[in-house]
């Protein structure tokens, strides 16, 4: 029996090349063509959404799903529901906070087994690079991971070790040979330890102040790490990706390194582009992340770096935990878990800031869909509305207001630094390979999310 051909018609189709009236023809979950509205075949099932923008499904290359092992923190079912509600159709899961950590092929297979039948959107998993697992890097590549994640400082969970300079240099020739990117949490411990010498002791009430936490993770920790990584990239010519850049002071050295042709990409996160330190209240541990949210001036400099292309993409670093781990009862930043959950809110957070600065939905699509897809090696499948790619779309209302309430979050624990905020834009519908998986608060159909493999 022949499959039904769909025609999605909008006056505002967002493609990599333009925003224009068009019809997107879909068959068997794949985009056949992007054509003029008058060219729609007579046998197509037409869905005309009028002036509502039709955008590519978002791709989040930095998500902590936490399953298997810590499903009480999150999990495939809740994370992918939140993603669908937020306009994400593809998630790339980080290799830590799950148990076992994804540092071997066996652990990757355990994650694959845990995901079966639970996913509302598509996913894949980064591998982990930790002290002592250099022999596992090539097998992980053979098993389909798109790249590797490592930490230069303690990551917050015992099972995923940071990698020291000697182990990193031992791994880099292997990484370079795979051709896959190394995603690095770029902070060094030395500047953090030095800053700690001037801080109050762990029991001091000053740890309820955000300024104390901010001082404990200084810009210098990021700057030293990034300088070291640029030098290593120059020597070993591996693909380097800096995750969650928080300090704008690193922009100039990154600009220079990229101008010299080094294979470096950079991400930042919605919280660094929306929040700022001066507005974070005492005890507001829902704002804690690492690296920390810095000053308002720093935020504006990050926006300029994003506009200039020094920062390539925006990923959420969705990092949830049980509410008790945020330590709201005492509001102490030194003992609270560091992580911000934002899968359901990232797009309106970003659009609120972007449209106020004159950016367009094409910019959003590039930062939050095309560039993350390219990082993960998925550009041929997702990340843009073009023939041959999966028919992953969102219908986004850029003029609607979104007030952040618990019922809009959809991830497991309803903790958010954006609670109560009035934001611009709302996801009306999310479409995965031609099938609606989210529509105005509802989740129709089955869990049809699949794993991508490189």
Structure description:
With 454 residues, the chain is of the alpha/beta class. The protein has two domains: 43 residues, no CATH class; 357 residues, TIM Barrel. It has twelve helices and 17 strands. Strands 9-10-11-12-13-14 form a six-stranded parallel beta sheet. The longest helix has 18 residues. The radius of gyration is 21 Å and the shape is globular. It starts with 5 loop residues before the first strand and ends in a 15-residue tail after the last strand. The model has no long low-confidence stretch (mean pLDDT 96). GO terms for molecular function: allantoinase activity; cobalt ion binding; zinc ion binding. Its EC number is 3.5.2.5. It comes from Terriglobus roseus (strain DSM 18391 / NRRL B-41598 / KBS 63). Catalyzes the reversible cyclization of carbamoyl aspartate to dihydroorotate. Belongs to the metallo-dependent hydrolases superfamily. Allantoinase family. Belongs to the metallo-dependent hydrolases superfamily. DHOase family. Class I DHOase subfamily.
Task: List its traits.
454 residues; alpha/beta; TIM Barrel; 2 domains; four-stranded mixed β-sheet; 17 strands; Amidohydro-rel; hydrolase; EC 3.5.2.5
- CATH H level of the largest domain: which superfamily? Metal-dependent hydrolases
Radius of gyration: 21 Å
> Widest sheet: strand order?
9-10-11-12-13-14
Helix and strand pattern: EEEEEEHEHEEHEHEHHHEHEHHEHHEEE
- Largest sheet descriptor: 6 strands, parallel
- Which of globular, elongated, flat, extended, rod-shaped describes the shape? globular
The level of helicity is 25-40%
Through-space gap between termini: 31 Å
Question: Which CATH class of the largest domain?
Answer: Alpha Beta
Mean pLDDT: 96
Total DSSP E strands: 17
Percentage of residues in strands: 15-25%
The SS-based structural class is alpha/beta
Number of helices: 12
Which fold name corresponds to the CATH topology of the largest domain?
TIM Barrel
């Amino acid at each position: 029996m022949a499959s039904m051909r769909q025609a999605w018609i909008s006056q505002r189709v967002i493609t990599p090349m333009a925003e224009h009236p068009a019809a997107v023809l879909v068959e068997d979950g794949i985009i056949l063509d992007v054509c003029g509205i008058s060219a729609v075949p007579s046998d197509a099932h037409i869905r005309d959404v009028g002036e509502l923008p039709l955008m590519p499904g978002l791709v989040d290359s930095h998500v902590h799903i936490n399953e298997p092992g810590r499903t009480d923190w999150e999990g495939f079912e809740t994370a992918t529901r939140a993603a669908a509600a937020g306009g994400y159709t593809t998630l790339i899961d980080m290799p830590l906070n799950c148990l076992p950590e994804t540092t071997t092929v066996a652990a990757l297979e355990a994650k694959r087994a845990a995901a079966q039948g639970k996913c509302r959107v598509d996913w894949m998993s980064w591998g982990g690079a930790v002290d002592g697992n250099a022999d596992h890097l090539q097998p992980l590549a053979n098993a389909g991971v798109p790249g590797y994640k490592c930490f230069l400082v303690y990551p917050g969970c015992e099972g995923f070790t940071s990698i020291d300079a000697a182990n990193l240099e031992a791994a880099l020739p292997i990484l370079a040979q795979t051709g896959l990117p190394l995603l690095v949490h770029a902070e060094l411990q030395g500047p953090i330890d030095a800053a700690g010498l001037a801080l109050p002791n762990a029991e001091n009430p000053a740890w309820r102040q955000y300024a104390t936490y901010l001082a404990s993770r200084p810009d210098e920790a990021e700057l030293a790490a990034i300088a070291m990584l640029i030098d290593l990239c120059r020597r070993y010519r591996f693909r380097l990706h800096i995750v969650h850049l928080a300090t704008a002071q690193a922009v100039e050295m990154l600009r220079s390194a990229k101008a010299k042709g080094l294979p470096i990409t950079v991400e930042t996160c919605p919280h660094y582009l929306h929040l700022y330190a001066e507005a974070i209240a005492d005890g507001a541990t829902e704002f804690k992340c690492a690296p920390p949210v810095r000053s308002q001036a720093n935020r504006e400099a990050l926006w300029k770096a994003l506009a200039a292309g020094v920062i390539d993409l925006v990923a959420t670093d969705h990092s949830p935990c049980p509410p008790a781990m945020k330590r709201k009862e005492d509001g102490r930043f030194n003992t609270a878990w560091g992580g911000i959950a934002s899968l359901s809110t990232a797009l309106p957070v970003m659009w609120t800031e972007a449209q106020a600065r004159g950016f367009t939905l094409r910019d959003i699509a590039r930062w939050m869909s095309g560039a993350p897809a390219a990082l993960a090696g998925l550009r041929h499948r997702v990340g843009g509305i073009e023939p041959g790619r999966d028919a992953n779309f969102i219908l986004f209302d850029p003029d609607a207001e979104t007030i952040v309430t618990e019922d809009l979050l959809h991830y497991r624990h309803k903790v958010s630094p954006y609670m109560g905020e009035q934001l611009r834009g709302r996801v009306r519908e999310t479409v995965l390979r031609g099938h609606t998986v989210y529509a105005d608060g509802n989740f129709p159909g089955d869990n049809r999310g699949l794993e991508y493999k490189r």
